[in-house]
Design a protein that fits this description.
This protein is of the alpha+beta class and 239 residues long. It has 2 domains: 104 residues, no CATH class; 122 residues, no CATH class. Helices cover 51% and strands 10% of the residues. The chain is built from 11 helices and 4 strands. A 4-stranded antiparallel beta sheet has the order 1-2-4-3. Strand 1 and strand 2 form a beta hairpin. It starts with a helix and ends in an 18-residue tail after the last strand.
Length: 239
């Protein structure tokens, strides 16, 4: 990484801290279930300091013009909280539950009208073609070590509308470099409430985080979506 790229997140510190504060509003909702107000304030402040230390260590994958960068910076915010929660003697499982609950608070279900529009759009062939092209365009960032390598998958059956195969994950690269690999599988679970919020159902048998050669997302429509917690019931979870 050259010096300019290495300083990218430091040069965008104001935006990064703004994003941290935005995410923290949702995290506070979760933390208040386990900690006192004083403890929550201390955890937030310590996590902000930890996040500042992480800024120069976040992999550069082309800047914010690459949508994957938002995923990386968001994961860095959660990583900062993870490091602080470890110091509060929470177990891996307890921290994993905090991560999943955070995603459930962050991704509140949209109203029926929005879900209906999304459903109608995603059924149209031209929209699927647009999605496929958008993934193809992201390949220009594949030369970055921590970039996502993603492919659109057509599903010619009645079970799934479409699929996404991810062969390389930036969050996996980042967390492994931080020796925090054990938490990646909990980060992956956030995809379920994210898609559920839009009336979409996710089926996934394997992930790169759990030693799969690919994260095989298969997307369908559903009005009733099962929570991904506890994770042992999910096909992707390590047995």
């Amino acid at each position: 990484m050259n010096t300019a790229n290495q300083d990218y997140y430091l040069n965008n510190r104001d935006k990064m801290i703004k994003d941290f504060n935005k995410f923290s509003k949702y995290m506070i909702v979760v933390l208040k279930e386990q900690f006192s107000s004083t403890e929550v304030s201390e955890i937030v402040d310590s996590s902000r300091a930890e996040y500042n230390k992480l800024l120069p260590e976040i992999p550069y994958i082309g800047g914010f013009k690459n949508s994957g960068t938002k995923n990386l910076t968001g994961s860095a915010i959660l990583l900062a909280y993870i490091k602080v929660l470890e110091k509060h003697n929470l177990t891996e499982r307890e921290i994993g539950a905090v991560i999943y609950q955070f995603f459930e608070v962050l991704f509140k279900p949209k109203n029926k009208f929005i879900k209906a529009i999304i459903k109608q759009l995603l059924k149209r062939k031209f929209v699927k073609k647009m999605l496929a092209k958008s993934f193809q365009k992201k390949a220009v960032y594949n030369h970055y070590d921590a970039a996502w390598h993603t492919e659109f998958v057509e599903c010619n059956n009645n079970q799934y509308e479409f699929g996404i195969d991810i062969k390389q994950c930036g969050i996996c690269k980042f967390f492994k470099a931080q020796n925090m690999e054990k938490y990646i599988k909990y980060m992956c679970l956030g995809d379920f409430p994210m898609l559920h919020a839009f009336g979409l159902n996710l089926y996934r048998e394997k992930t790169v985080a759990t030693s799969g050669e690919v994260c095989n997302y298969r997307i369908s429509f559903s009005n009733e979506n099962e929570r991904a917690w506890p994770p042992e019931k999910m096909p992707e979870w390590p047995k």
